[in-house]
Design brief:
The structure holds 2 protein chains of 2 kinds. By secondary structure, chain A is mainly alpha-helical. Chain A has 15 helices and 4 strands. By secondary structure, chain B is α/β, with parallel strands linked by helices. Classes of the chains: A mainly alpha, B alpha/beta.
């Protein structure tokens, strides 16, 4: 029994066990301190559905040994370009979501290839460079959002008539298109089946990809690039592919996020989007070199659970707004923890 | 001190690395002012012995050693190099440990500089003493003089020719007043002939001043020129301990490579000069750090096992690594009449060549993945084996069952010790990892196989299995094998012909039946 328990702890990981226990405690504590539990559960599930695809975007680059994609904002920008252009071209309703995804794809391919080319030049320092690629692309787009010739009345600044607003409402466009699709309501709990389905589809595709010849090569490149090279793999090409996949998933991920959230957020909003996704996959048990779909699901659930539940429960207990502090401690702390584990890889 | 108490006495020194015996019952004595030449093949245990004497950390970390060391008749046991230094032992390593931006004098006296008091240091303590440049120059000068060569103490290391750097290192050891014993680990390896001569002179002049010297080198003539006695090591044992006057290069070579295993497998060796050429290598150069290949031309015959031997650093490892595209290479390589493009690993693999790398952990294995992945991966990627095709070949799905079956087959065939085919490669012992590397190459079903250092760092039992597997693969499947190894005896057991590489060139090719000393002579023929 004891052996079984310790082997379970070893495979599940102590940090995850502690976090799960903490989350469970929060769920138990919630009704006692007067928090509306069904609403909080709905909240956690919804936030899971918004964020899961962004977390999934981490997987390809981890597998190919490019580390965690701190350059996620680049993919997000592709998604934002797709979203704004889709609205600008006058698409509405569910069609605007489909078009946003289609339009953002070429942007993701082009930006992703450039980003991949850069990462191939600086092997070993990917995560550092990625962070700054993300940051600088956000700053660059801050200028472009103002300068690009958008004209749609409900997207541009009211008085000037040009330059995009910081926040654009998606009402009448693709607000909750996925969440409402096949939505199930049990009592006060509502489940956004459409959004979960899309995530399931992408996650299954990713899982399947990792079982193909190319997917196997990708994992091998991440595990030992010299071995892969000696087995005749074009290491740079595989890495490039992983970066493009990651960027495209980020673009789709932000669209899913927007449809749930109900707004397009521009300018500095993508700046910090990478960190919650990075922390989520790390909480889920991924390392800098290994990540599975299970890590994505578990991690997103735990991370979003913690950041939704902790502030509400704590606020009810001590009557002070602690939400942002807790969120920052949880997400940054997890990244710090995971990066110290980096040396685990055997060479 | 009387001559009857030797300066250094090592008694029954034994050392094993995790059960792998590397030194057995070493007994060694050294008198004051005596020069001892220590020779042996790579891996014979020379450097391990010196590490024990010098108290290197690696010895402690791997469980210490057995036996006693007496210095001036007193038992000593150095835990760190600092203790050895304090006791009067100096060591000059192959790699320089000098500060490039400092002058020779500064390097020689680093951290032991004579100092002057000043007002500031009187107030703030001795760390702010001023260097006594005059005294420094005098001391450095004296140390350089003791060596018997002329180098400029004011010259910055950076600007010095290699030889002078080496002399600076030696001078640093000599400047220590307590120095009694100096260990020189291949000091002439980087020197030109002139510089080497000067060094040998200085060794003699040190000896005449009463300093004992242990001199390790591959250049046997130097040993005869300068040493009082020669100690030959092989397989962790001292096989000969004779005065230098009473022996010669040929004899030393024979002791070095040994004759003991001459009988094994002789009958099977085939030398068929009429066999067609499988691979012809012309004017190959390879830029592999530490194993530079300068100009190799070689014909490999169909169906044979060709051995490539030679001392470390002479370029034998560069040949397969260069041809297989892992390091920059140039020249011409033809496989069965087809030109093999260099610097493109994929092209070599497509031409049904395979390579088992000497760097098991770095190149040979996916340490974090299962045995199944390790064995099946190259065959999957190169020949589309172990894949199921869906949607008309658009989706190539990993066939887990086929992968499991092939892995299980090789686990049984090669007797790989593991808990299951899903075990991670890093959890296996060195010998079993090597078998996995072989299985990986066998699974490719190659027409031509390079095997590099297949027995490096594995124990005797595993060695035999690995060599048998290679031989069987060659004889039963008719696959041409080129095997690179530092161990001549092993090559002579397995190969049909053996090429010896020396100084980045092929020094000669002999049938494996030739006596060991002929190979030994080739090995040292062009050492640079």
């Amino acid at each position: 029994m004891k052996e079984k328990l310790s082997s379970f702890v070893a495979s599940f990981g102590l940090p995850r066990l502690i976090i799960s226990a903490f989350l469970l405690a929060l769920f138990i504590l919630a009704p006692i301190v007067g928090v509306d539990l069904p609403m909080q559960i709905t909240n956690v599930i919804n936030r899971f559905s918004w964020n899961a695809v962004l977390v999934l975007a981490m997987v390809p680059m981890v597998h190919s040994g490019c580390g965690l994609n701190f350059g996620l904002p680049l993919g997000i920008i592709s998604g934002l370009l797709g979203a704004t252009l889709s609205l600008e071209f006058g698409f509405t309703g569910p069609m605007s979501f489909v078009m946003a995804a289609l339009i953002s794809t070429p942007f993701a391919l082009i930006l992703g290839s450039g980003y991949g080319w850069l990462l191939n030049k600086i092997k070993g320092g990917e995560m550092m460079i990625a962070t700054y690629v993300g940051f600088s692309s956000v700053s660059f787009m801050c200028m472009m959002w103002l300068l690009l010739p958008y004209h749609k009345a409900d997207m541009v600044w009211g008085l000037a008539g040009k330059g995009l607003r910081t926040t654009i409402s998606l009402e009448g466009y693709y607000d909750k298109v996925l969440s409402r699709f096949l939505q199930i309501n049990i009592g006060k709990i509502s489940i956004p089946v459409g959004a979960l389905l899309l995530f399931a589809l992408l996650a299954t595709a990713m899982w399947a990809f990792l079982h193909t010849k190319t997917g196997t090569a990708m994992t091998a490149v991440g595990s030992n690039p010299v071995f892969a090279k000696a087995a005749g793999i074009h290491v740079d090409r595989i890495r490039m592919l992983s970066v493009v996949m990651s960027t495209w998933l980020a673009a789709i991920g932000i669209l899913v996020y927007e449809q749930g959230f109900g707004f397009i957020q521009l300018y500095m909003a993508p700046f910090y989007m990478a960190l919650p996704a990075v922390s989520a996959i790390l909480i889920g048990g991924a390392t800098v070199n290994k990540a599975t779909i299970m890590n994505v699901i578990l991690g997103t659930f735990l991370f979003q659970g913690i950041v939704t539940m902790t502030p509400t429960v704590m606020n009810s207990v001590i009557h002070t707004d602690m939400s942002e502090v807790v969120r920052v401690i949880a997400s940054q702390g997890m990244i710090l923890y995971a990066l110290t584990r980096k040396t685990e890889v055997t060479r | 001190m009387s001559q009857n108490v030797p300066l250094l006495e090592m008694k029954n020194i034994r050392k094993d690395f995790f059960g792998n015996q590397v030194l057995t019952d070493i007994n060694l004595t050294l008198q004051e002012g005596e020069v001892l030449g220590l020779v042996g093949e790579n891996g014979a245990g020379k450097s391990t012995l010196m590490k024990i004497l010098f108290g290197m950390n690696v010895i402690q970390e791997t469980g210490g050693y057995d036996g006693t060391i007496l210095l001036d008749g007193q038992p000593v046991d150095f835990k760190t190099p600092f203790e050895a230094l304090a006791a009067g032992i100096g060591m000059v390593h192959q790699e320089f440990s000098l500060i490039p931006g400092f002058t020779a004098t500064e390097n020689i006296l680093l951290n032991r500089e004579p100092k002057k008091k000043s007002v500031i240091s009187a107030v703030f303590g001795e760390r702010l003493d001023v260097l006594n440049r005059k005294e420094m120059n005098r001391k450095a000068e004296a140390a350089i003089d003791r060596m018997g060569v002329k180098i400029d103490g004011t010259m910055v290391i950076h600007d010095m020719p290699v030889g002078h750097k080496q002399f600076t290192e030696i001078a640093r050891e000599l400047s220590k007043d307590q120095l009694k014993l100096l260990i020189l680990d291949e000091p002439t390896a980087v020197l030109t002939e002139k510089e080497a001569e000067a060094l040998l002179l200085s060794i003699r002049s040190m000896a005449s001043r009463g300093i004992a010297v242990i001199f390790i080198t591959h250049r046997l003539q130097e040993i005869l020129d300068v040493c009082d006695k020669v100690v030959v090591m092989r397989d962790g044992q001292i096989v000969q301990d004779v005065p230098a006057k009473e022996t010669g290069v040929t004899e030393i070579t024979r002791w070095m490579v040994g004759r003991s295993v001459d009988v094994a497998g002789k009958a099977e060796i085939r030398d068929n000069p009429d066999a067609p050429v499988a691979m012809s290598i012309r004017r190959l150069w390879v830029d592999m750090p530490g194993e530079t290949v300068r100009d190799v031309s070689l014909d490999v015959r169909e169906g044979e096992i060709l051995g490539i031997g030679g001392l470390a650093g002479q370029g034998k490892l560069g040949i397969p690594n260069g041809i297989m595209g892992l390091y920059d290479a140039g020249g011409e390589v033809m496989l069965r009449g087809e030109k093999i493009p260099l610097n493109r690993p994929r092209a070599c693999l497509n031409a049904s060549m395979a390579f088992v790398s000497e760097d098991r952990r770095g190149v040979g294995l996916l340490l974090d993945e299962t045995l199944e992945w390790n064995i099946a991966f190259p065959a999957m990627q190169i020949h589309d084996k172990f894949l199921k095709n869906y949607l008309g070949g658009l989706v190539k799905w990993r066939d887990e069952k086929a992968i499991h079956d092939i892995t299980q087959r090789y686990i049984d065939d090669l007797a790989i010790k593991c808990t299951s085919s899903k075990q991670k490669a890093k959890e296996l012992s060195g010998g079993n990892q090597q078998k996995v590397c072989l299985a990986k190459a066998f699974a490719l079903e190659p027409g031509f196989l390079f095997v590099s250092e297949p027995t490096r760092g594995i124990d005797v039992g595993a060695k035999a299995l690995v060599l048998d597997a290679l031989r069987k693969f060659n004889r039963e499947s008719g696959v041409t094998i080129v095997m690179i190894s530092s161990e001549l005896e092993e090559l002579r057991q397995v190969c049909d012909r053996i090429a010896i590489v020396s100084g980045g060139r092929v020094a000669g090719i002999l049938p494996a039946t030739k006596p060991a000393e002929e190979f030994g002579l080739l090995m040292v023929s062009q050492v640079k």
